[in-house]
Amino acid sequence: xxxxxxxxxxxxxxxxxxxxxxxxxxxxxxxxxxxxxxxxxxxxxxxxxxxxxxxxxxxxxxxxxxxxxxxxxxxxxxxxxxxxxxxxxxxxxxxxxxxxxxxxxxxxxxxxxxxxxxxxxxxxxxxxxxxxxxxxxxxxxx
Length: 142
Fold this sequence. Notes:
By secondary structure, the chain is mainly α. Helix content is 77%, strand content 0%.
């Protein structure tokens, strides 16, 4: 078993396991070292583990950046929703004021602008009625 792990110094071939590794991770056995193959494998495993750890860390950083962007988008949506709710509350208050004015018979400028023809017609009719009443009273006196 031990004889199969040792290599002769003149043999400079790569094992099948070493051929499968990337070129940057390949190591040749060192002559005179009894456990050179085991040491090479341990070094390669350490390199692979650190490379995997770096990839995992980069992936984690990307995922964290994505999560931060998602959180920012959600905060923006929440702000838009709050603005919409505030706008709806303002409109509801305007409607309540308009309903109260309608019950009292108050005509607002907005209603005059919205319904200008109706408002002007009723004003003209009121004016004509007042003029006719005044003329009728003058005729009664004379």
